[in-house]
C-alpha cells in the first residue's frame, strides 16, 4: 500500500478511474455488461463506488489497520465456483428488472477468468453452496404427520437438503432512484450525507453508476431442484423473511418471526417433495431495517405506555422512536425473484400486503397466500399480529376497534 492517502474523489484518481471498464447495466452477456470493480488494490480499474463485502468492509479495514491482513491481498478463487447452476435468465438482460444486485455476481471467476489472470481484481458478490439444515420444528412436523421424510429432500432425523446463496448488495443507482421515483441526484446526496461523507464519489462522480453499499445482504435457502427455476411449469413456494435475531435464533416471544419462518420452511419442503422448488429469502433487515437498538427501545415504550401494550398504538410506538413505522422499503425486494427467473409464486408464505404488492407491481404473480396458522402465534405476539392485520395484512379475520384497544401479552418485567 502506498504511504500517502488516496482520495477516491481526487482529480488524479478520477482521471485514472475513467480508464476503467465501463459498466453497461442490463447488457445481455457478462462480457458486454463488463466487470464491476470496487476493489481497492487496483484504484485505476475501479468503476464502482463503495467497497466489497457490505458492512464487513469495516472489519477488513480493522484487519488491515491491525496488521493482520495485507492491504493488497486478493482472493484465490480456485474451487469456489457455484455448487448449483443459477441462470442466466432473461430478466438479467433488463436494466430495470434487477437494480440492487449483480446478476452475474456468482459467475465472475468464470466469466472474467482471463481478465483476473491478467491482473484485474474482480470479486464475486454472490456465492452458491449446498448444505443440510435441521430445525426442531421440522422434527415436530414429522412427529405430527404434517411432513413425511423421503430419504432425499427430508431425512427421518430432520435433516433437509438445501442449496444456499449469499448475496451482497450491488446498487445500480439510476435504477434504484427509479424504483423510489426520486431523482438520482437526491438519492446520491442523501447516501453521501447520511454516511457522513463516507463515499465522496456519490457526489463527485456522477459517471460512476454502481454503488456497493455498506449494508447487510441476503441469504437464499432453496429446496428441491434449482435447475427447474425459470420454467413456467415449475411450481414455487416461498417465505420472504426479514431478519429478527431475537425470535429467529433465540425464540423470543414478542413476535411471530421464527414460527412463521419454520412454517415457511415446511411449506417449501412440501413443494420440493411435489417436484417444485421451495425458496426462503432471508434479508438482513433487522427490526424493520431500524436495527435492534431501536427495536428494544420500542419494546420498552410499548410495555410501559399508559393503558398497556395494545394493537391500536402498536405502530405509533415505533414511529415515536424511529420517526417511521418501517424502513424495509419493499421496492428493491423483487430483484432476487427476477434473478432466479421466477415469474409466478404458487404458495406465498407471507401475510404482508407491502411485500405482496411490491411483487405484483414488478409483474410477479402470487397465486395462493399462506398465513401463519393461529396455533403458532405466541401469546405475547398477539398485539403485533392484530395491529398488522388491522393495517392491511392478509387474513381471514379483522379485529374490531374494541379488540385493538385491549392490552395483551406479558408485562415488561414478567
Ligand atoms: Zn420478530
Automatic annotation (TrEMBL):
Segments forming domain GTP cyclohydrolase II: 227-371
UniProt cross-references to Pfam families, sorted A to Z: GTP_CH_N, GTP_cyclohydro2
Cited SUPFAM superfamilies: RibA-like
Keyword Glycoprotein recorded: no
GO term, biological process aspect, one: riboflavin biosynthetic process
UniProt keyword terms in alphabetical order: GTP-binding, Hydrolase, Nucleotide-binding
GO molecular function, one term: GTP cyclohydrolase II activity
Domain GTP cyclohydrolase N-terminal: 3-194
Transmembrane regions: none
Entry's EC annotation: 3.5.4.25
InterPro entries in UniProt: GTP_CH_N, GTP_cyclohydro_II, RibA, RibA-like_sf
Listed name of the protein: GTP cyclohydrolase II
Originating species: Corticibacter populi
Amino acid at each position: 500500500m502506498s504511504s500517502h492517502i488516496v482520495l477516491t474523489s481526487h482529480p488524479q484518481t478520477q482521471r485514472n478511474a475513467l480508464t476503467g471498464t465501463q459498466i453497461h447495466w442490463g447488457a445481455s452477456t457478462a462480457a458486454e455488461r463488463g466487470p464491476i470493480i470496487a476493489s481497492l488494490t487496483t484504484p485505476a480499474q475501479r468503476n464502482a463506488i463503495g467497497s466489497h463485502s457490505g458492512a464487513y468492509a469495516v472489519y477488513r479495514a480493522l484487519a488491515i489497520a491491525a496488521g493482520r491482513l495485507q492491504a493488497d491481498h486478493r482472493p484465490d478463487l480456485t474451487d469456489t465456483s457455484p455448487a448449483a447452476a443459477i441462470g442466466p435468465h432473461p430478466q438479467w438482460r433488463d436494466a430495470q428488472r434487477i437494480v440492487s444486485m449483480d446478476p452475474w455476481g456468482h459467475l465472475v471467476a468464470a466469466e472474467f477468468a482471463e481478465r483476473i489472470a491478467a491482473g484485474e481484481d474482480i470479486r464475486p458478490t454472490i456465492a452458491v453452496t449446498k448444505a443440510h439444515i435441521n430445525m426442531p420444528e421440522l422434527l415436530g412436523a414429522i412427529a405430527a404427520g404434517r411432513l413425511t421424510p423421503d430419504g432425499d429432500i427430508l431425512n427421518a432425523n430432520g435433516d433437509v437438503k438445501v442449496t444456499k446463496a449469499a448475496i451482497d448488495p450491488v446498487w445500480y443507482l439510476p435504477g434504484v432512484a427509479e424504483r423510489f421515483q426520486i431523482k438520482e441526484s437526491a438519492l446520491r446526496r442523501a447516501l453521501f450525507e447520511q454516511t457522513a461523507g463516507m463515499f465522496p464519489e456519490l457526489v463527485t462522480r456522477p459517471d460512476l453508476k454502481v454503488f456497493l453499499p455498506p449494508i447487510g445482504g441476503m441469504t437464499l435457502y432453496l429446496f428441491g431442484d434449482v435447475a427447474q427455476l425459470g420454467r413456467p411449469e415449475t411450481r414455487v413456494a416461498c417465505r420472504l423473511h426479514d431478519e429478527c435475531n431475537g425470535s429467529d435464533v433465540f425464540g423470543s416471544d414478542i413476535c411471530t418471526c421464527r414460527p412463521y419462518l419454520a412454517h415457511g420452511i415446511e411449506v417449501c419442503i412440501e413443494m420440493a417433495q411435489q417436484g417444485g422448488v421451495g425458496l426462503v429469502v432471508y434479508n438482513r433487515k433487522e427490526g424493520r431495517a431500524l436495527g435492534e437498538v431501536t427495536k428494544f427501545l420500542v419494546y420498552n415504550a410499548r410495555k410501559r405506555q399508559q393503558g398497556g401494550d395494545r394493537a391500536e398504538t402498536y405502530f405509533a410506538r415505533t414511529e415515536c422512536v424511529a420517526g417511521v413505522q418501517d424502513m424495509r422499503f419493499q421496492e428493491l425486494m423483487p430483484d432476487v425473484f427476477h434473478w432466479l427467473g421466477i415469474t409466478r409464486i404458487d404458495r406465498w408464505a407471507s401475510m404482508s400486503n407491502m411485500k405482496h404488492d411490491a411483487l405484483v407491481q414488478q409483474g410477479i404473480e402470487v397465486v395462493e397466500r399462506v398465513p401463519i396458522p393461529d396455533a403458532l402465534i405466541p401469546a405475547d405476539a398477539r398485539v403485533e399480529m392484530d395491529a398488522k392485520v388491522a393495517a392491511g395484512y392478509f387474513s381471514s379475520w379483522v379485529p374490531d376497534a374494541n379488540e385493538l384497544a385491549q392490552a395483551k401479552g406479558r408485562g415488561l418485567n414478567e
